[in-house]
Amino acid sequence: MGARREPLSPELGAIIEQAYRLFACPPPPDLGVCQGCCMWPEIEADFLNHAPRDLTEAYVRDWYFAAVASKDGLIVHKPIACWIMPRVLEILAKGQEVASVGDEVVLQRLAAGDSDRWSADQNALLTRFKEAYLDLIPQRCDHVMLDDALCMFALAGFAAPAMTDQIMGWSDEVLTQVLHQDWIGSCIRPSIWRTAFWEANSDAAQHVWNWYLSDALLERMIKIALAEDLPDEICQKASEVERLLISQR
Protein backbone atom coordinates (compact mmCIF):
# COMPACT_ATOMS: atom_id res chain seq x y z
CA MET A 1 0.00 0.00 0.00
CA GLY A 2 1.41 3.35 -1.03
CA ALA A 3 3.57 3.26 -4.14
CA ARG A 4 3.49 6.64 -5.84
CA ARG A 5 3.55 10.30 -4.93
CA GLU A 6 0.18 12.05 -5.12
CA PRO A 7 -0.52 15.77 -4.79
CA LEU A 8 -2.28 16.63 -1.55
CA SER A 9 -5.96 17.40 -1.91
CA PRO A 10 -6.95 20.77 -0.42
CA GLU A 11 -8.70 18.97 2.43
CA LEU A 12 -5.75 16.73 3.26
CA GLY A 13 -3.34 19.62 2.87
CA ALA A 14 -5.28 21.61 5.47
CA ILE A 15 -5.43 18.58 7.77
CA ILE A 16 -1.68 18.05 7.56
CA GLU A 17 -0.93 21.70 8.34
CA GLN A 18 -3.25 21.52 11.33
CA ALA A 19 -1.54 18.30 12.43
CA TYR A 20 1.83 20.06 12.54
CA ARG A 21 0.27 22.66 14.82
CA LEU A 22 -1.72 20.33 17.09
CA PHE A 23 1.07 17.79 17.52
CA ALA A 24 3.88 20.32 17.94
CA CYS A 25 6.00 19.18 20.87
CA PRO A 26 9.65 19.05 21.99
CA PRO A 27 11.88 16.35 20.53
CA PRO A 28 11.47 13.08 22.45
CA PRO A 29 14.19 11.80 24.78
CA ASP A 30 14.79 8.81 22.50
CA LEU A 31 13.48 7.16 19.36
CA GLY A 32 11.35 4.56 21.14
CA VAL A 33 12.91 1.73 19.13
CA CYS A 34 15.82 -0.61 19.65
CA GLN A 35 19.15 1.17 19.45
CA GLY A 36 22.39 0.17 17.84
CA CYS A 37 21.09 -2.68 15.71
CA CYS A 38 18.04 -2.04 13.50
CA MET A 39 18.52 1.45 12.08
CA TRP A 40 21.38 2.67 9.96
CA PRO A 41 23.83 4.18 12.49
CA GLU A 42 24.06 7.47 10.60
CA ILE A 43 20.28 7.86 10.50
CA GLU A 44 19.82 6.84 14.13
CA ALA A 45 22.41 9.39 15.29
CA ASP A 46 20.97 12.18 13.16
CA PHE A 47 17.22 11.50 13.43
CA LEU A 48 16.33 13.88 16.25
CA ASN A 49 18.48 16.67 14.85
CA HIS A 50 15.69 17.48 12.40
CA ALA A 51 12.25 18.99 12.74
CA PRO A 52 9.59 16.36 11.98
CA ARG A 53 8.59 18.14 8.76
CA ASP A 54 12.18 17.84 7.52
CA LEU A 55 12.53 14.10 8.05
CA THR A 56 13.06 12.40 4.71
CA GLU A 57 10.90 9.46 3.72
CA ALA A 58 14.01 7.27 3.88
CA TYR A 59 14.58 8.32 7.51
CA VAL A 60 10.98 7.50 8.44
CA ARG A 61 11.10 4.12 6.67
CA ASP A 62 14.31 3.28 8.51
CA TRP A 63 12.69 4.17 11.84
CA TYR A 64 9.78 1.86 11.05
CA PHE A 65 12.22 -0.92 10.21
CA ALA A 66 13.47 -0.87 13.82
CA ALA A 67 11.75 -2.95 16.47
CA VAL A 68 9.67 -1.06 19.02
CA ALA A 69 11.33 -0.85 22.45
CA SER A 70 8.23 -1.58 24.53
CA LYS A 71 6.78 -4.57 26.36
CA ASP A 72 4.23 -5.30 23.65
CA GLY A 73 6.67 -4.53 20.83
CA LEU A 74 3.94 -2.70 18.92
CA ILE A 75 3.39 0.83 20.25
CA VAL A 76 6.05 3.47 20.86
CA HIS A 77 5.93 5.83 23.82
CA LYS A 78 3.83 8.97 23.48
CA PRO A 79 6.66 11.56 23.15
CA ILE A 80 8.01 10.05 19.93
CA ALA A 81 4.51 9.20 18.66
CA CYS A 82 3.34 12.79 19.10
CA TRP A 83 6.52 14.25 17.61
CA ILE A 84 6.51 12.14 14.44
CA MET A 85 2.73 11.86 13.89
CA PRO A 86 2.32 14.81 11.47
CA ARG A 87 5.15 13.63 9.24
CA VAL A 88 3.72 10.10 9.07
CA LEU A 89 0.30 11.47 8.17
CA GLU A 90 1.86 13.68 5.51
CA ILE A 91 3.69 10.80 3.84
CA LEU A 92 0.53 8.68 3.86
CA ALA A 93 -1.48 11.56 2.44
CA LYS A 94 0.96 11.90 -0.45
CA GLY A 95 0.55 8.24 -1.33
CA GLN A 96 4.10 7.31 -0.40
CA GLU A 97 5.24 4.16 1.37
CA VAL A 98 5.89 4.78 5.05
CA ALA A 99 7.03 1.33 6.21
CA SER A 100 8.69 -1.21 3.95
CA VAL A 101 7.17 -4.02 6.00
CA GLY A 102 3.68 -2.74 5.16
CA ASP A 103 1.79 0.48 5.76
CA GLU A 104 -0.93 -1.43 7.58
CA VAL A 105 1.15 -1.15 10.76
CA VAL A 106 2.24 2.49 10.63
CA LEU A 107 -0.59 4.05 12.64
CA GLN A 108 -0.72 1.13 15.06
CA ARG A 109 2.83 1.97 16.14
CA LEU A 110 1.63 5.46 17.09
CA ALA A 111 -1.70 4.30 18.60
CA ALA A 112 -3.33 6.94 16.41
CA GLY A 113 -6.83 5.67 17.11
CA ASP A 114 -6.46 5.44 20.89
CA SER A 115 -8.67 8.31 22.01
CA ASP A 116 -7.31 8.13 25.57
CA ARG A 117 -3.84 8.98 24.30
CA TRP A 118 -4.68 12.23 22.54
CA SER A 119 -6.46 15.49 23.29
CA ALA A 120 -9.97 16.18 22.00
CA ASP A 121 -8.59 18.39 19.21
CA GLN A 122 -5.98 15.81 18.25
CA ASN A 123 -8.58 13.04 18.18
CA ALA A 124 -10.85 15.15 15.98
CA LEU A 125 -7.94 15.82 13.61
CA LEU A 126 -7.03 12.14 13.39
CA THR A 127 -10.64 11.23 12.66
CA ARG A 128 -10.76 13.83 9.90
CA PHE A 129 -7.57 12.39 8.44
CA LYS A 130 -9.01 8.87 8.49
CA GLU A 131 -12.19 9.97 6.74
CA ALA A 132 -10.38 12.06 4.12
CA TYR A 133 -7.88 9.26 3.44
CA LEU A 134 -10.65 6.70 2.93
CA ASP A 135 -12.53 9.03 0.59
CA LEU A 136 -9.40 9.36 -1.57
CA ILE A 137 -9.13 5.61 -2.14
CA PRO A 138 -11.37 5.69 -5.25
CA GLN A 139 -8.82 8.01 -6.88
CA ARG A 140 -5.95 5.72 -5.86
CA CYS A 141 -7.54 2.29 -6.22
CA ASP A 142 -4.94 1.22 -8.77
CA HIS A 143 -2.35 1.13 -5.98
CA VAL A 144 -4.20 1.43 -2.64
CA MET A 145 -6.38 -1.51 -1.61
CA LEU A 146 -9.47 -0.76 0.44
CA ASP A 147 -8.88 -3.68 2.80
CA ASP A 148 -5.31 -2.55 3.46
CA ALA A 149 -6.54 0.91 4.46
CA LEU A 150 -9.31 -0.49 6.65
CA CYS A 151 -6.76 -2.71 8.37
CA MET A 152 -4.33 0.17 8.87
CA PHE A 153 -6.92 2.28 10.66
CA ALA A 154 -8.44 -0.63 12.58
CA LEU A 155 -5.05 -1.76 13.92
CA ALA A 156 -4.48 1.82 15.09
CA GLY A 157 -7.65 1.66 17.16
CA PHE A 158 -10.27 3.32 14.96
CA ALA A 159 -13.74 1.75 15.02
CA ALA A 160 -14.42 -0.48 12.03
CA PRO A 161 -18.21 0.11 11.90
CA ALA A 162 -17.72 3.84 11.33
CA MET A 163 -15.43 3.07 8.39
CA THR A 164 -17.76 0.59 6.68
CA ASP A 165 -20.66 3.01 7.19
CA GLN A 166 -18.61 5.71 5.47
CA ILE A 167 -17.84 3.43 2.54
CA MET A 168 -21.48 2.42 2.16
CA GLY A 169 -22.15 6.14 1.78
CA TRP A 170 -20.09 6.26 -1.41
CA SER A 171 -21.98 6.65 -4.68
CA ASP A 172 -22.99 3.50 -6.56
CA GLU A 173 -20.37 4.09 -9.23
CA VAL A 174 -17.54 4.73 -6.78
CA LEU A 175 -18.32 1.74 -4.56
CA THR A 176 -18.60 -0.58 -7.55
CA GLN A 177 -15.36 0.62 -9.12
CA VAL A 178 -13.36 0.16 -5.91
CA LEU A 179 -14.69 -3.31 -5.07
CA HIS A 180 -14.31 -4.51 -8.65
CA GLN A 181 -10.76 -3.20 -8.92
CA ASP A 182 -9.70 -4.78 -5.60
CA TRP A 183 -11.46 -8.12 -5.95
CA ILE A 184 -11.51 -8.76 -9.69
CA GLY A 185 -9.33 -6.33 -11.60
CA SER A 186 -6.29 -6.82 -9.35
CA CYS A 187 -6.63 -10.58 -8.83
CA ILE A 188 -5.60 -13.54 -10.98
CA ARG A 189 -8.98 -15.01 -10.17
CA PRO A 190 -11.90 -13.20 -8.52
CA SER A 191 -11.50 -13.19 -4.74
CA ILE A 192 -12.20 -10.93 -1.78
CA TRP A 193 -8.82 -9.38 -1.02
CA ARG A 194 -7.70 -9.60 2.62
CA THR A 195 -4.37 -8.30 3.85
CA ALA A 196 -2.34 -10.65 6.03
CA PHE A 197 -1.95 -7.94 8.67
CA TRP A 198 -5.39 -8.40 10.19
CA GLU A 199 -5.28 -9.68 13.76
CA ALA A 200 -6.94 -13.09 13.68
CA ASN A 201 -10.35 -13.20 15.34
CA SER A 202 -10.26 -9.52 16.29
CA ASP A 203 -13.59 -7.71 16.44
CA ALA A 204 -12.49 -5.32 13.69
CA ALA A 205 -11.34 -8.09 11.35
CA GLN A 206 -14.58 -9.98 11.89
CA HIS A 207 -16.69 -6.87 11.38
CA VAL A 208 -15.05 -6.03 8.05
CA TRP A 209 -15.33 -9.62 6.82
CA ASN A 210 -18.98 -9.75 7.87
CA TRP A 211 -19.57 -6.50 6.00
CA TYR A 212 -18.05 -7.93 2.83
CA LEU A 213 -20.49 -10.85 3.07
CA SER A 214 -23.44 -8.84 4.37
CA ASP A 215 -26.90 -8.84 2.85
CA ALA A 216 -26.66 -5.05 2.67
CA LEU A 217 -23.60 -5.08 0.40
CA LEU A 218 -24.93 -7.90 -1.78
CA GLU A 219 -28.28 -6.17 -2.18
CA ARG A 220 -26.49 -2.94 -3.09
CA MET A 221 -24.57 -4.72 -5.85
CA ILE A 222 -27.73 -6.39 -7.15
CA LYS A 223 -29.49 -3.03 -7.26
CA ILE A 224 -26.59 -1.43 -9.12
CA ALA A 225 -26.35 -4.33 -11.57
CA LEU A 226 -30.03 -3.88 -12.47
CA ALA A 227 -29.99 -0.08 -12.58
CA GLU A 228 -31.14 1.55 -15.80
CA ASP A 229 -29.69 4.96 -15.04
CA LEU A 230 -26.05 3.90 -14.66
CA PRO A 231 -23.43 3.21 -17.36
CA ASP A 232 -23.45 -0.36 -18.69
CA GLU A 233 -19.83 -0.78 -17.56
CA ILE A 234 -20.77 -0.07 -13.94
CA CYS A 235 -23.74 -2.43 -14.09
CA GLN A 236 -21.53 -5.18 -15.53
CA LYS A 237 -18.90 -4.69 -12.85
CA ALA A 238 -21.54 -4.74 -10.13
CA SER A 239 -22.88 -7.99 -11.57
CA GLU A 240 -19.39 -9.53 -11.39
CA VAL A 241 -18.97 -8.40 -7.77
CA GLU A 242 -22.43 -9.78 -7.01
CA ARG A 243 -21.47 -13.21 -8.39
CA LEU A 244 -18.30 -13.21 -6.33
CA LEU A 245 -20.17 -12.35 -3.14
CA ILE A 246 -22.70 -15.10 -3.76
CA SER A 247 -19.90 -17.60 -4.35
CA GLN A 248 -18.42 -16.80 -0.92
CA ARG A 249 -21.61 -17.65 0.96
Mean pLDDT: 94
User: What is the total tally of β strands?
Assistant: 0
Question: Could you describe the largest sheet, including whether it forms a barrel?
Answer: none
Proportion in β-strands: under 5%
- Structural class call reads mainly alpha
What percentage of residues falls in helices of 4 or more residues?
55-70%
Order of helices and strands: HHHHHHHHHHHH
The radius of gyration computed from the alpha-carbon positions, rounded to a whole number of angstroms, is 19 Å
N-to-C span? 28 Å
Number of helices: 12
- Report the uncertain regions: none
Shape, per Cα inertia axes: elongated
Compute the number of structural domains: 2
Please outline what is shown here.
The protein is mostly helical and 249 residues long. 57% of the residues lie in helices and 0% in strands.
